[in-house]
Each structure stands twice: as C-alpha cells, then as structure tokens.
Amino acid sequence: MGCGNSTAAEPESKPAPQGGAIPQNRTAQEKMNVPAGQMTVDNAFQQLGLGEKPVINESMAMDQVNDNVELLQDLNNMLFDAIKKDCAEINRSYSESDYFRLWKAAHSLKGAMSNLGIMRYAAVCKAIEECGKSLEAAVAAARAAAGDAPTEDDNLEKKLEDERHKLGVYIELLAQQETEYRQHYAAFEKRVLEAAPKKQ
C-alpha cells in the first residue's frame, strides 16, 4: 500500500514491504533499534517518535488561520489535494527508483503539512525525504565507483536493498497517517464549527 490511498507499483524482484505487528514481548527500545531491512510500520512509528506528537496541533492550526473557520476548511481541502498529487509522485518515483523526484515530492508535502500543524504526517514526510536523499546519494556513489557498470559489491547491494525496504515502510506508514489525519481533522472541524458564533 502506498501513500495517498493508492498502491505503489513495485518491481517483482523486490516486493513491497509489508508492515505488521512485531512480537509483543519486544521493548520499545528494541523496536527502535530494528535494522533497516527488518523494519515494519510498527517500529517505524516508534523510531520516528510519532506517539509523542499530536496528529494535529490544533492551536497552531487555528493561529495560522486567525481563527477563521472557512479559511481552515479551504486550507485543509488544499492539503487533501496536495496529498493526492504528491503521494502519486512519491509512489511513482518509488516504483521507478527515482529518488530525486521522490524526496522533492516528500519535501513539498512536508512543508505544506508543517505549516498547518499536521505534525505526524509532516514527520513521516521528513523521514521519506531523508531516506530518499540517502538512496539518491548511495546510488550516485555506486555508479561513480563502478563507472556506471553494475556493481558486485554485496555489502553495498544489501545496504541499498535495506534502505529501499525502509523507504517502502515509511511510505506505507504515510498512508496510515493520512487516514489518521483525515479522521482527526473531521472531528476537529466539527468541534470548531460547533464553537463558532452562529451567523444571524
């Protein structure tokens, strides 16, 4: 599952990572220290510290719109459109291993979300951006070292494979956070509308 409620196409040789629960006897610290190649959505959530962040920083969101409910609604509709566009780009770039386009899309989405206090979603976008940059640099270094010929460095291949797996997990986590954001925003908007002065 990719972000934006769409499925990211994945090369047959490298199936999309599946996030899942890890054994319940694992401590929180152990979950945070899982190697990239063994990461799941569960321990990615732990590593990124998402449990310590609000889904939406509501006071920040209202400050950004000067308590204007209609502006809040308009901006969130724009964010939903941005998710659709940028997540499509993230999914497509991941399937094509185009890490430059991928991290640029994640960077754009991160900024839009951060501005309106969508904290968890923005944090996952940041992780995707950083992972995309890391993969872009690693691929470029591998090509330079091998003169653009296929590399036979098993350690490098394993590192790239593990980083790509981690990136796929982050993209899956982003889809989960989109669902949370939409649910929390619906409840947030309802409360704001109920508290707003009634027009005469």
UniProtKB/TrEMBL annotation:
Protein name: HPt domain-containing protein
Gene3D superfamilies linked: HPT domain (1.20.120.160)
Keywords (A to Z) from UniProt: Phosphoprotein
Keyword Phosphoprotein: yes
InterPro entries: HPT_dom_sf, Sig_transdc_His_kin_Hpt_dom
GO biological process terms on file: phosphorelay signal transduction system
Lineage: Eukaryota, Discoba, Euglenozoa, Euglenida, Spirocuta
Residues with Phosphohistidine modification: 107
Pfam families registered for this protein in UniProt: Hpt
Organism domain of life: Eukaryota
